[in-house]
């Protein structure tokens, strides 16, 4: 059947209009919690464009502010025109995903993802029910709420493609580990007080590929093999990463009392490092043939671990090169710039150390409580706190140098993200776009 040219043209115009009406996911400006390379570093071309001064009261360089319902620590991810993040009601009974247009601030998606009749009480004033950050690909958004559920979302419609609600652990103080994508795998971490394991799903179907239990000796069992206390010592919030080590792709994952290397395709345990910490939350960092690991919460250690082809079994004594015992980060992910590791404690003690040797270079203090990780803007580090303040600190091995300070009205508990010359900050109850007008 021959269709009239006018009809064909009309159909093509309609299809084009429908296509252009849907927000694209390309380019992937900020696809994961710690940015394009999962290292907290803003690409140089982007860093050169963002403003370094703003003010919530006067509106200086504030393009828009969007009020949000619910709460969450999840750091936004950005692809194309949309900014994505999760939120939950304060009682954890409803869990949502947001999709905000980055140009206009319009709410394109606000979808209820999961409902929970009786969520476990948090028991932790620092946490909430939407702490894990999502991850984004061109054709999929993956959201994770720990034991309450994991889902793949169509970024065009905002609808669920698949969901899993049968992967569980008792978090005790709320979920915190964010998922990562590697190849066709979506990797999830569950370090609860009842179960501790890492698992990989087929990202397209949601089906389980492998599951590996921790082999940690927690040192808390009685003579009958039962834990002697119901508490924090088995719990962690770690987000892992994958590195090529000894010709294999290795998932480096830190749990309570021990860190592990797993073959990422199979989940086979390759090596372990014993440590004394719990509540591990800081992703691993690699510098050449060195792994930098953080072991936990207030008494966290930072470890420098040698990478070589002899990493097998228990490598605690053979491969830990240095151990920084005090004033380490607990929630705020450190960043590595030119071989220098910059980090801040929850209480705002900021420090720089030589990553190769573990040698301290300088230490100072910032105001407020710091949960978000810093981002690197060229030669500057952007830190945020629970008073709505952001601090610009020179990335220098010589000394602490504060070069700027900005203020928003609400506490900040999520890391800043950058896209197309703008900074986006999720504060408590609001999302801000900051850009030179």
| Count of individual beta strands | 33
Largest sheet: 5 strands, mixed
| Number of separate helices | 3
Shape: globular
**SS-based class:** mainly beta
End-to-end separation: 54 Å
Can you give the helix content as a percent range?
Answer: under 10%
Q: Taking strands numbered 1, 2, ... along the chain, how are they ordered across the largest sheet? A: 14-15-16-17-21
- Mean pLDDT comes to 93
Radius of gyration: 22 Å
Fold and architecture overview:
The protein has 437 residues and is mostly beta strands. It is built from three helices and 33 strands. It has helices at residues 5-21, 44-47, 316-319; strands at residues 62-67, 77-79, 82-88, 94-101, 107-115, 135-137, 140-144, 150-153, 160-164, 180-182, 185-191, 196-202, 208-213, 241-245, 248-254, 258-263, 269-274, 285-287, 290-294, 302-306, 313-314, 320-324, 335-337, 340-344, 349-354, 359-365, 375-377, 380-384, 389-394, 402-407, 417-419, 422-427, 430-434. The chain has a five-stranded mixed beta sheet. Strand 10 (180-182) and strand 11 form a beta hairpin.
Could you list some keywords that capture this structure?
mainly beta; four-stranded antiparallel sheet; 437 residues; 39% strand; five-stranded mixed sheet
SSE diagram, text form:
Layout: H1 5-21, H2 44-47, E1 62-67, E2 77-79, E3 82-88, E4 94-101, E5 107-115, E6 135-137, E7 140-144, E8 150-153, E9 160-164, E10 180-182, E11 185-191, E12 196-202, E13 208-213, E14 241-245, E15 248-254, E16 258-263, E17 269-274, E18 285-287, E19 290-294, E20 302-306, E21 313-314, H3 316-319, E22 320-324, E23 335-337, E24 340-344, E25 349-354, E26 359-365, E27 375-377, E28 380-384, E29 389-394, E30 402-407, E31 417-419, E32 422-427, E33 430-434
Parallel strand pairs: 17-21
Antiparallel strand pairs: 1-33, 2-3, 3-4, 4-5, 6-7, 7-8, 8-9, 10-11, 11-12, 12-13, 14-15, 15-16, 16-17, 18-19, 19-20, 20-22, 23-24, 24-25, 25-26, 27-28, 28-29, 29-30, 31-32, 32-33
């Amino acid at each position: 059947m021959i269709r009239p040219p006018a009809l064909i043209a009309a159909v093509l115009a309609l299809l084009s209009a429908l296509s252009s009406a849907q927000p694209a996911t390309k380019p992937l400006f900020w696809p994961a919690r710690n940015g394009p390379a999962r290292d907290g570093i803003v690409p140089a071309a982007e860093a050169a464009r963002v403003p370094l001064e703003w003010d919530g009261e006067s509106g200086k360089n504030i393009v828009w502010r969007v009020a949000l319902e619910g709460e969450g620590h999840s750091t936004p991810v950005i692809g194309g025109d949309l900014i994505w993040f999760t939120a939950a009601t304060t009682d954890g009974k409803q869990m949502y995903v947001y999709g905000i247009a980055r140009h206009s601030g319009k709410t394109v998606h606000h979808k209820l993802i999961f409902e929970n009749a009786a969520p476990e009480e948090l028991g932790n004033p620092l946490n909430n029910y939407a702490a894990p950050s999502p991850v984004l690909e061109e054709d999929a958004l993956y959201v994770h709420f720990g034991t309450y559920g994991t889902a793949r979302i169509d970024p065009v419609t905002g609808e669920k493609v698949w969901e899993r609600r049968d992967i569980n652990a008792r978090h005790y103080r709320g979920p915190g580990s964010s998922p990562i994508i590697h190849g066709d795998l979506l990797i999830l971490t569950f370090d609860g007080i009842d179960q501790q394991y890492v698992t990989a799903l087929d990202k397209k179907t949601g089906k389980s590929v492998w599951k590996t239990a921790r082999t940690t000796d927690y040192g808390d069992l009685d003579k009958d093999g039962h834990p002697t206390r119901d508490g924090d010592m088995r719990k962690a919030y770690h987000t892992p990463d994958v590195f090529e080590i000894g010709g294999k792709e290795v998932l480096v994952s830190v749990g309570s009392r021990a860190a592990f290397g797993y073959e990422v395709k199979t989940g086979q345990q390759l090596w372990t490092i014993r440590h004394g910490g719990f509540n591990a939350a800081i992703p691993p960092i690699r510098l050449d043939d060195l792994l930098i690991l953080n072991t936990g919460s207030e008494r966290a250690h930072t470890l420098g671990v040698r990478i070589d082809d002899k990493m097998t079994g228990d490598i605690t004594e053979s491969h830990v090169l240095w151990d920084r015992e005090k004033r380490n980060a607990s929630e705020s992910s450190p960043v590595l710039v030119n071989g220098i590791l910059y980090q801040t404690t929850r209480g705002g003690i900021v420090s720089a150390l030589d990553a190769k040797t573990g040698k301290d270079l300088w230490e100072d203090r910032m105001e407020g409580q710091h949960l978000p990780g810093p981002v690197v803007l060229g030669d500057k580090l952007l830190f945020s706190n629970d008073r709505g303040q952001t601090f610009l600190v020179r990335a220098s091995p010589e000394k602490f140098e504060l070069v700027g300070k900005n203020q928003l009205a609400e506490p900040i508990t999520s890391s800043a993200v950058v896209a197309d010359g703008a900074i986006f900050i999720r504060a408590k109850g609001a999302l801000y776009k900051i850009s030179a007008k």
